[in-house]
Amino acid sequence: MADLAAVKRALAAQRIETPSWAFGNSGTRFKVFAQAGVPRNPQEKIADAATVHRFTGVAPTVALHIPWDKVDDYAELRSYAESLGVGIGAVNTNVFQDDAYKLGSVTNPDAGVRRKATDHLLEAIAIMDATGSRDLKLWFADGINYPGQDDLRNRQDRLAAALRETYDRLGADQRILLEYKLFEPAFYATDVPDWGTSYAHCIELGEKATVCIDTGHHAPGTNIEFIVAFLLRQNKLGAFDFNSRFYADDDLMAGAADPFQLFRIMYEIVRGGALDPAYGINFMLDQCHNIETKIPAIIRSVMNIQEATAKALLVDRDALSRAQNDGDVLEANAVLMDAYNTDVRPLLAEVRADAGLDPNPVAAYRRSGYQERIVQDRVGGQQAGWGA
Amino acid sequence: MADLAAVKRALAAQRIETPSWAFGNSGTRFKVFAQAGVPRNPQEKIADAATVHRFTGVAPTVALHIPWDKVDDYAELRSYAESLGVGIGAVNTNVFQDDAYKLGSVTNPDAGVRRKATDHLLEAIAIMDATGSRDLKLWFADGINYPGQDDLRNRQDRLAAALRETYDRLGADQRILLEYKLFEPAFYATDVPDWGTSYAHCIELGEKATVCIDTGHHAPGTNIEFIVAFLLRQNKLGAFDFNSRFYADDDLMAGAADPFQLFRIMYEIVRGGALDPAYGINFMLDQCHNIETKIPAIIRSVMNIQEATAKALLVDRDALSRAQNDGDVLEANAVLMDAYNTDVRPLLAEVRADAGLDPNPVAAYRRSGYQERIVQDRVGGQQAGWGA
Amino acid sequence: MADLAAVKRALAAQRIETPSWAFGNSGTRFKVFAQAGVPRNPQEKIADAATVHRFTGVAPTVALHIPWDKVDDYAELRSYAESLGVGIGAVNTNVFQDDAYKLGSVTNPDAGVRRKATDHLLEAIAIMDATGSRDLKLWFADGINYPGQDDLRNRQDRLAAALRETYDRLGADQRILLEYKLFEPAFYATDVPDWGTSYAHCIELGEKATVCIDTGHHAPGTNIEFIVAFLLRQNKLGAFDFNSRFYADDDLMAGAADPFQLFRIMYEIVRGGALDPAYGINFMLDQCHNIETKIPAIIRSVMNIQEATAKALLVDRDALSRAQNDGDVLEANAVLMDAYNTDVRPLLAEVRADAGLDPNPVAAYRRSGYQERIVQDRVGGQQAGWGA
Amino acid sequence: MADLAAVKRALAAQRIETPSWAFGNSGTRFKVFAQAGVPRNPQEKIADAATVHRFTGVAPTVALHIPWDKVDDYAELRSYAESLGVGIGAVNTNVFQDDAYKLGSVTNPDAGVRRKATDHLLEAIAIMDATGSRDLKLWFADGINYPGQDDLRNRQDRLAAALRETYDRLGADQRILLEYKLFEPAFYATDVPDWGTSYAHCIELGEKATVCIDTGHHAPGTNIEFIVAFLLRQNKLGAFDFNSRFYADDDLMAGAADPFQLFRIMYEIVRGGALDPAYGINFMLDQCHNIETKIPAIIRSVMNIQEATAKALLVDRDALSRAQNDGDVLEANAVLMDAYNTDVRPLLAEVRADAGLDPNPVAAYRRSGYQERIVQDRVGGQQAGWGA
User: Fold this and answer.
1) What is the reported pTM?
2) Most buried among A384, C2, D241, D318, by the most CB within 10 A?
3) Does residue C69 contact residue C110 with C-beta atoms inside 8 Å?
4) ipTM, 2 decimals?
5) Contact between residue D60 and residue D16 where contact means Cβ atoms under 8 Å apart
């Protein structure tokens, strides 16, 4: 049996990072439905992130996206965040929205564009220096839409060069989190399509480069928890972008589409000893709340991850090992499912109460009046969004 | 052996419709890369469509998208098109970009929104009356992102009611083309996800309702040519939206991702006697040229369909039937592949020359100076795009 | 709030049919791992099915597979089953294992083979007459492996003819359940690949033909609960083949791969008023227990369906409707998830205790000594399996 | 423009290995349809492979599968093969058909089973010593069907240990080809599911371990040519198992399902300088001819690969590079497609004629009387198959 006190300690210590851009407007290529009360600047995004932390207690950092969160004074932004009780998390780069990047950024056939893109990556490290951020998150929209459009292998050479230059600029306590994605916005080949590609580059870069798993970036049928287990074994898992999907990169709330998968992923995290913040994985949300209200959706996503984690922690690992070693297929599966089928909401309510929080963060948020306040206050200006 | 003269006659008679919106800007949720020379209004789109027809000879109609192509005087628009040698094709409705449609249009839980959406469908029929268009193309972005968000079955009832009201308004020579799509922009359930759903509604509506197949709207692994063959057998195939994809609804140039699939689709069209324009299928392109120049991309797409059709027409159907009836798997496959492996470009060059066209439409377009002219002329104003 | 007494009544009344062949050996093309104690004849399969019913109380019928379960005297087989407390359920036909069926059964280009296959279907109806079975389950392995191998449309004509002849032979209280499958064993096109194809044939056949959904027979990403909802609305859902899968037709224990999906399916059943045995749906298991012990695996599968059903029954449908009609995406989803996240095992334990059953069927089975007994007794002879 | 003489030299030098087991019976879990004339022993399989080489001229080696091709004297088998004009190719291991391997072979929780499996791998190296084979092909059916069934990470440790022991036993000129597969026969997680896993193990093993790509072993949508390009860049691509599929591991004839994909794969081979036999890639077929006659199906598969290769060689790489570097998407794609759309059958007919072969290998085989002879001669005995 799992040690309940230890489970509660682990849950209390869990950390989930929220992304600044999830508080802004988002949508599909068909339409962005603007929402009232959405932030107009990085400060307002941080205030929303701090609100999520206030009600959940486990989301003390917020990731930035540059240039969406560009400010003149990053030290000031950091202080502002700290004044609200949160810190700056990963710095996410954006080399896909400038007109120059139509055919790629660091893998573009044009050397000038590659220079521009790489300079942006270096600029992001400077922002990390200023904000105290440890993590440089790299996602490249680079790829091609048509067979023959560009040379797949030349693009790898260009990618490797840009990564090397960026890696060499990292400070002692900084690191690269290299994300991969099967498709979108490129529709024939992407330059970092899968974990293997990211892993191979990270191996060549060195210890400070690790793989970031976005749970929505895989081919149908991919077993994500296997990748988690494998990368932990190789000591190369650095971060998550949590979200969920039924089809492609749907970016729905984490745990909404397949809560059992989320549980299996968190079980591998627990089994690999990687839940503890000291291990160093950045557990981040990366979602789009296209039609639902953003702050409670993010609170709900945090809670979904907490519930999956609680179930993972409740697995009777001794009984599981016994059944596994005995080759008792049904019993081993039953031990795992026994934890999954447990209703962990009362347990999490206790953990929250112990931390001085409302046991029901969504209800508490709704009662708090925060939503009404931002709807009333944030009028005028340019709402934040992917185009901002 | 196929009768070469008959093949050439069939190719000369083939008709492919171009979509007005493919000449405008498009992109992904990450970025729309604007292109120089893109139309600023419906008239300029029609001029581009007429240009495609001038060089290919098989694209004499252009589909409209309402409200993107809204004008004050549709009779005038029709005359303008005819003056350029093209006609108005299908009228495509758009009930996904108004803020009211965040939770659906004709399936929205709010009766007022449903009324508004249905009124738009009826308005589109009025435009058909004014433009002489025969086809009302219905694609609904309706669906839900989260389990429980709305009742799947109530939404079907609402859909059926809107379709019925629309159907009853159709003129004697008008018809509904009901499109289906697995996902996007809805990410959990769409209200017309597959051909079966469209078919069942069409059966209930009556003879003037038929299914529209968008080649990019299926689950991975779906055998599209089977659907073509089946719907032809049921007399319920009304239209195509041609494009191609490697992953989801990528909207690449038709034939670019899987030319063999396009050939198999066109073979079922030929085998079902449905290539002849008199059969009544609207063979339309529906694509996004996000990074490639639009007019030559559309010319190329038309040519890809022509090449697939030529190969389909070259299948030695007597030999094929013999091998099929003999149960000779290898020979039957070989007969089909023999046609596919033929280089039909010389044959199509002849067909074009016979029609007084340049045998190489892309090269002719490039030499024509049209592209340079529109880039120079179309400066200022608001470029057409999905948001326009 | 759901009415708990009504929930318990519904759970007590639920019926799940077990398949005789799941008690026999099964495997993949790579290997069939034989298990000790596996039945050697239809009687022993029925005895195992009766055992599952003895411990679960909700599995009172067992489906037959002809010719795997061929006996000389079906009336006697029926009596034997009844003496053990179970009845004969659906009769499943098998037109894929005779050498004649290499290129298809009812869709074979050879008329003689088609005759032979159709005769088998008619023979199955005779067995239904003798056993009192109501349901003729039709699954056709028919299809082709290579483009061109046979004419897709001719095969539909042949299929329609065989179905018509079979349908016309049905007794007043008998019906056809027409299954569909995307692929395997045919690898390019199957003759009934999706629900739409089955539905269209059933519509043409008449009232006594309905669709059977095998949960493992879809393309990746298919929303099965939508199909359930849609077919219930059309009054054309006749049966389920329950199992689960991560990839293709894996035939794992129901609920093992995606318990949330099973819940969503059962929710549509409940919402459509179709759980009640009087509605007439045949809820059958169709699984392969390749590596796990068969009887407890089947008990576990029955329990998984019960748990999904219990959660579906617990959905607060008034609150759900309110949130749906209000367009409150998060709340509507939360109402559904609230039921899903409930631990229903205590509730089901009560339902079982009320019925005089052990609250834990798997543990009770393990204690019963049945497994040890069959392993000891069933020595010699030919174990049942797909080849038998 | 491609240098035609060089193209012909490259095509004449191309080498494709045939698999002994493809000449035997195969099927699906539903049925194996036996064919007349199928080999009864390794010698007859080799005779068939030699026949394929006789008519194609490019298939001079045949891969063995142990224990299916177990003989007392491997040196004698090698001499026999050489007397027919072919050599022994890769030795394929089989650790999935013994009853002991129900829960895995080298990753089994039972140390005794792991010992037995590893011993088989070592035995295969001894057979390589005796036959002069360079390649040890490792495919593991290992994996689990249910979440929790076994510990994913412990299984990696066991796999690494077995691979290490095997690697250390390799002779100076021998190497490991480590295959990966997403699923089947394991249905939840396989122990080497993707190229990344194989690659990571190969990197750790050393220079003599390289990745084997089976074209049917990927998740839907996987871009295989990207993997080819990437592994060539990393110098870690060792072998192919060619076949084709529409859905899962269908094992259809290479090039049958997606000839354009095969062309793109071969283009990356050509572009990477890896077509030359001196580069060292083992281009093998691995197929199942379940319903079509085996020898002509294999001849046809060889020809399909030749045609894809010829098209790849015809790509105007200077024009392609120019268009790519100019960022001319349409022109770059057009250059590639120009080669794909070429009918290369006349060119290959010339290459064959130059080599003293019949220009049409399938027709020549059919005229040769070989098929009739084996049907007549190979009567009695036990036909070879996966169970043999």
Assistant:
1) 0.98
2) D241
3) no
4) 0.97
5) no
